[in-house]
């Protein structure tokens, strides 16, 4: 059974504005599903319907096997939610808030302290657990909100742009926790504007624009639809471009569109591993290469191809790959 099933889901406001316009999607148990789109595309409205905070005006959605409109209490018992704006009592300590959340969710009293300490450690707040939340930074509050969302071991976790505006350390902590949740079999529905975040974490991605899903699939498959990775080549001196084309034609696909400043662009299926043989072939032909740049399709390229626009998170900062893995 799918963890989340959505069929023709709609949310229409007065005046006929459809924030979500008949979307379909399915998220399997244990999957990390990345939901990408610009501000105003319908991401947060979709999440608010799936977590029973907003009633759909059309279509149907089930979470953990229960209908969000007719069985909201059953849904809430099985989900964890960390929205963009966490409603935290600033006068309580981090530990007190997590323990209170555990009690509200019916966690047995004998388990509360142990679960609380485990989660505090996982989100990197051990040294700050006895401080009042009002003294926490924005990143610390987001990590605390994540711990509170996990205290009852939910089947499905909803994270609505959890790393927007966070410092690199907090973002890396959240990324690592999402990876851990996936290993533990938790289903994660992650909305984000950060392309690298979706690339790093998501098994599949759905891209929403103007209330409709315009693309869906694994990050690799979506990028492959746009085209091959390519090498932008710049030659030294008065290179014979015609001769260079002849040499490169057997090695890949000569692209019609060449980047500004480059002399030739060559599509190469194998990506970076093609650089050595391309440079070697040109060198043997007496053509000196000044610069080679590998350019790979991105999820923003997918979005641009489907909508003609770009995502706000394109090019936004994110943790270095070695720090996040």
Question: Could you give a short description of this structure?
Answer:
By secondary structure, the chain is an alpha/beta fold.
Structure description:
By secondary structure, this protein is α/β, with parallel strands linked by helices. The chain has 2 domains: 4-223, 3-Layer(aba) Sandwich (Rossmann fold); 228-296, Alpha-Beta Plaits (2-Layer Sandwich). It has helices at residues 43-50, 72-78, 94-104, 109-122, 138-150, 168-184, 195-201, 219-226, 241-248, 275-284, 299-307, 321-324, and strands at 4-12, 18-27, 32-36, 58-63, 66-67, 79-82, 156-160, 187-192, 204-209, 212-217, 230-235, 253-254, 264-267, 289-295. The strands form 3 sheets. The protein has a 6-stranded mixed β-sheet with strand order 6-7-8-3-9-10, with helices on both faces. Helix 3 packs across helix 4 and helix 8 packs across helix 11. The protein starts with a strand and ends with a helix.
